[in-house]
Write a structure and sequence with these properties.
Elements lengths: L1 H14 L7 E5 L11 E7 L17 E7 L2 E7 L10 H14 L3 E10 L9 E9 L27 H13 L4 E8 L8 H9 L4 E3 L3 H9 L3 E11 L10 H25 L1
Parallel strand pairs: 1-4, 1-5, 5-9, 6-7, 7-8
Antiparallel strand pairs: 2-3, 3-4, 5-8, 6-9
Helix pairs in contact: 1-2, 2-5, 3-6
Bound molecules: hypoxanthine (HPA).
């Protein structure tokens, strides 16, 4: 794994000259709008990056973008890898290792999710303050490389409080309603049954999605500061479970994405 990270990092460096990103951003389903705000220096399609998987889902184009956002050098994953696509945890989280090796110290992740908290509404934003890993495995299983992080990483404050407070402040200044809550990550690709939504709510989750948790575990292992934000695209509230389609998820995410873009853009400026 160390060889692969080194090889990929070297190959990217050769193509991006002396570009040195300090912040990494992973854009979720229908949330690519942030790219329009970036002064792009380099774009590398995933199929041109050694050891990168390919994003197979509609609404997730696969590119690594290097550029300037709010005056900071950033690297952005437009399109991520999911467990339900058949990739293993190491493949899904490999880009996080590479972004860390390229020099980032903060990772911002976004996603679309279903909301179980009855106070939430479709289209709302939720700042992630914690997660529950319901994937059947963990990206850190297997040999641990101390160069990459500790064998038993602490997860006490996985989503950095300071960044959450900053994001809430930014939302307030811009009259954007945000909630804060717990993201449960599971495999998909089925959306949840009403019983599963009920179960997820009872175990303490506010929203549910099919991504984010693997990348965040690896980011935390690597010592990165993490910020996570979700768009609630559908509701799994007990007694009010709605029919969900991927198209609807994309539609709502696209519609609400400018608010998320504003928060991330402003957050990057203040980090
Ligand atoms: N469940 C899981 N993942 C999701 C959902 C959902 O309801 N909406 C968007 N991603």
């Amino acid at each position: 794994m160390l060889d692969q990270i080194e090889f990929t990092t070297k190959s990217i460096r050769e193509r991006t000259a002396d570009f040195k990103p300090s912040i990494g951003i992973i854009l979720g389903t229908g949330l690519g709008g942030l790219v329009k705000e970036i002064k792009i220096a380099y774009t590398l399609p995933y199929n041109e990056i050694p050891h990168f998987a390919l994003s197979t889902v509609e609404g997730h184009s696969g590119k690594l973008i290097f550029g300037e956002l709010s005056g900071k050098q950033v690297v952005v994953m437009q399109g991520r890898f999911h467990f339900y696509e058949g990739y293993d945890m190491k493949q899904i989280t490999f880009p996080v290792r590479v972004m860390k090796a390229l020099g980032i110290s903060t990772l911002c992740v976004s996603n679309a999710c279903g909301g179980m908290n009855p106070a939430f509404q479709v289209g709302e934003l939720m700042i992630i303050n914690d997660h529950i890993n319901l994937f059947p495995t963990n990206p850190l299983i297997g040999k641990n490389y101390p160069e990459l992080g500790p064998r038993f990483p602490d997860m006490g404050e996985t989503y950095k409080k300071e960044l959450r407070e900053l994001a809430k402040q930014i939302a307030k200044e811009n009259n954007i309603k945000v909630d804060e809550g717990v993201y449960a990550g599971l495999t998909g690709p089925c959306f949840e049954t009403p019983a599963e939504f009920r179960y997820l709510r009872r175990i303490g989750a506010d929203v549910v999605g099919m991504s984010t948790v693997p990348e965040v575990i690896v980011a935390k292992h690597a010592g990165l500061d993490v910020f996570g934000i979700s768009i609630v695209t559908d509701l799994g509230v007990e007694g009010h479970v709605e029919k969900v389609t991927h198209e609807e998820v994309q539609h709502i995410a696209n519609l609400q994405e400018p608010k998320l873009t504003l928060i991330i853009k402003e957050l990057v400026k203040r980090i």
